[in-house]
Specification:
By secondary structure, the protein is of the alpha/beta class. It has 2 domains: about 80 residues, Methyltransferase, Methionine Synthase (B12-binding Domains), Chain A, domain 1, CATH 1.10.1240; about 120 residues, Cobalamin-binding domain (Rossmann fold), CATH 3.40.50.280. It is about 60% helix and about 15% strand. The structure holds cobalamin.
């Protein structure tokens, strides 16, 4: 089975909510030596994009979204250890507080960001989904992180990314953290508008942007 076919099968498995097909092709991807992140990005996530579009146009409903999410997670159980196995034995890059903002229960993308950042040398404190601005700030303070990374998958919850930056300013501690934003509807323009330090389209972006922010800070 060639790479294109495996990636297409992964997407189809998510679209059809077929866990067996997802597990089988996740294994096929690893056996064929496909980069596990590419399997996520070009396979599973592509399928998820189709399911999201079908939901938006009324061609599928919540049960299909749930099945797609479960199928994605079933494949991730196989792919994630392969991502983690590439963990770099490098010096600690920095500490990141990761959360999905208040009102938002989506965690698949956030979890991928956490895994990829960890395997790239960051210490990640993931406090989960549906996190209020104050609980995020408290956790950032408690864990003495350098970066706060916020995931939001809905246009209705994106304003909570903005709120966090505003509250940091009100508390006089905006300079203490780099704030990184991401998630489906989030864009560079949104990040600029709300005064975030960085925006990432993918988990790899999250790593690259975090590195460049920390490096720029340590440059004289
Ligand atoms: C799966 C899914 C669900 C699952 C979530 C399961 C789970 N455990 O996460 C379930 C079924 C629970 C669900 C529920 C709902 N959902 Co939903 N869901 C989706 C769907 C199809 C896929 C999301 C996903 O996991 N994508 C795959 C991952 C890998 O991609 P990702 O999250 O974008 O993450 C990547 C990048 O964005 C980035 N990234 C993510 N976070 C961060 C953070 C940082 C800092 C950085 C740098 C990068 C980064 O890196 C990731 C990896 O590359 C999307 C459609 C879509 N295409 O996004 C709708 C979608 C997000 N859902 C939507 C809706 C409306 C809902 C519901 C309200 C439905 C309902 N009527 O109940 C509820 C809301 C529940 C809530 N309060 O949160 C809408 C949101 C519309 C809007 N307002 O903007 C969408 C866009 C569907 C649509 N087209 O209408 N959903």
């Amino acid at each position: 089975m060639d790479k294109k076919e495996v990636l297409e099968n992964l997407a189809t498995a998510v679209i059809e909510g077929n866990k067996d097909m997802a597990r089988e092709n996740a294994q096929n991807a690893l056996t064929a030596g496909i980069d596990p992140l590419e399997a996520v990005d070009q396979g599973l996530s592509k399928g998820m994009g189709v399911v999201g579009a079908q939901f938006e146009s009324g061609d599928s409903f919540l049960p299909e979204l749930l099945m797609a999410a479960d199928t994605f997670s079933a494949a991730m159980e196989i792919i994630e250890p392969a991502i983690e196995a590439r963990k770099q034995q490098v010096h600690k890059e920095g500490t990141v507080l990761l959360a999905t903002v208040k009102g938002d229960l989506h965690n698949i993308g956030k979890n991928i960001v956490g895994t990829v950042m960890e395997t790239s040398g960051f210490e990640v404190v993931d406090i989960g989904i549906d996190q209020s601005t104050l609980s995020i700030i408290e956790a950032a303070d408690k864990n003495k992180v350098e970066i706060i990374a916020l995931s939001s998958l809905m246009s209705t919850t994106m304003p909570n990314q903005k709120e966090l930056i505003e509250v940091l300013k009100e508390m006089g501690i905006r300079d203490r953290y780099f704030v990184l934003v991401g998630g489906g509807p989030v864009s560079q323009k949104w990040a600029d508008d709300i005064g975030a330090d960085g925006y990432g389209d993918t988990a790899i972006d999250a790593v690259n942007i975090s590195r460049s922010l920390l490096n720029a800070r340590s440059d004289p």
